[in-house]
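Handout, page 2. Input:
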Amino acid sequence: MTVKVQLFGYLAKYSPTQMETFQLEIGPEATIAELLQKIEFPPEVEKMVLVNGTQAQASTRLAEGDEVFLFAPAAGG
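Output:
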């Protein structure tokens, strides 16, 4: 299946295509964890993940056409 992935800010440097937004072929019912592993995203890097605008966890299953957004957590004070 195909999902759309978008990496924001400095996380774009982890894109396997050198582009902030790209299409990714992944197995049926793959999870966020599997997607991150496939693009070789370093597990120690802090990130927030949204799928179709809703916060997602590593175990969240993906479906055909999902949009996955990865961005750095906001810090404030």
